[in-house]
Amino acid sequence: MKRLSIGSLWWLLWAILGLRLLSLGLYPLMDTSEARYAEMARKMLELDDWVTPMFDYGVPFWGKPPLAFWSQALSMQLLGVNEFAARFPAWLFHLGSCLLILRFAREERDLRSGLYAAIIFSSTTLGLLGAGVVLTDPALGFALLLASYGFWRAMMHGDRRWALAGFFGLGLGLLAKGPLVVVLVGAQAGLWTLLNRQWQAFWRLPWLSGLGLMLLVAVPWYGLAELRTPGFLDYFLVGEHWKRYVVSDWAGDLYGSAHARPPGSIWLDLLLALFPWSLWLPILWLQRRHYRALPRYYSFLALWALITPAFFTLSGNILWTYVLPALPAWSLLLASALHARQPEPGLVAQAGALGSSLLLPVVLVLAALQGALFERPNNQQPLVAAWKKLQASQPGALYYWGRRSYSAEFYSAGQARHIEALTALPDHGPYYLVRREKDLDPERNELAPLQCSEQLRASRSVLLRCAGR
User: Fold this and answer.
1) How far apart are the first and last CA of the chain?
2) pTM greater than the 0.90 cutoff
């Protein structure tokens, strides 16, 4: 049977990556987390403080290490403060992951398997999202992939340089998310070594120089962060890495709220993250005989694919993005299974299956151009744009009454201010006030003493210009 050419697969991969790159600046910062992290990166650049990410002016953020913020702030420094610059580092991390996936599969299988895997990885729901989202997960995913690949090369090929690159990846992971990367890679590496009885190769790893490199990459920042803001290590290591895992409604979160979920929810998240390729998961069982040819390789991928969701199975405080580090392994497994199908699928069937990988990227670009999908309360770009335009003729400060808006802070360059009560407003205007439509109570008419006039309704919020009491 005919197969799609290698050139066609390259074009398909670059089309997916290109569409995602094109989409990065087409829609505003979305959910609370994306806008919050983008604003912290902007503050890092504004304050020229590259040690302590700031949750607010004068309020340190102890929830995450700075690698993602560093990359986003540097991108904004080079490309300007905008959505594209904030998301571009995630695309670069994704591109780096694709190159490692390609190299891994080409060395152990063939180039076609590598291209299949990179296409699958890039066109899954979470893979596509992670290739352009302002979160810490893309940096963690790349770091874990680098560490895993480095371990494999060292164990199976005695490659010292890649072994050190793997330890470097662990150091990056410590700066991306924290000790979680050591736990996940350590569990995967330890179990694989035990199952395959590779203790001699394990002990031959460059432990002294490798661990030294890992600590050299990560420890200086941890030390500086504790010196700058004492209490960081206790909150980050004990709170974020223990209490957040074992306490589903952990009340100690300084920066948001716990995401309580039933135990085992991570497996449903995995199915969503892999969609539409999760529909092909049964083929992994149907092609199980194929794995006997390379038991060490496939056991390595299987452990890598399962360790992350298994680790979060008993945790009740999770987000679906937590499965991102496992997606490269699932993509490699699916690619091998699809490539090994006998008889080989025909050209039309292959084109249909792989062509479906363009579905989500195309839908994302079209939705971004249309814009209605992004009309959400957390998106304050239209209101801030209107406020900026009004400054030329009717200047005034901008206040958000009620829930804090990280999106407004980002788009106003930190000028949007949050107030809990109207008594915090100045006595005299003019100034501008934003309130969510659902929180306005016409019966109480709380705004009457402020002499406010409506300027714009957008994103389910109202922009008011107030003269003051």
Assistant:
1) 80
2) yes
pLDDT digits (tens, 9 = 90+) for 72-86: 999 999 999 999 999
- Of 274, 335, 328, 284, which Cα lies nearest the Cα of 305? 328
Among 351, 370, 389, which residue terminates a domain? 370
32 vs 239 pLDDT, higher one: 32
Inter-axis angle of helices 83-108 and 111-123, nearest 10: 150
Q: How many domains does the chain have?
A: 2
> Domain range spanning residue 129?
6-370
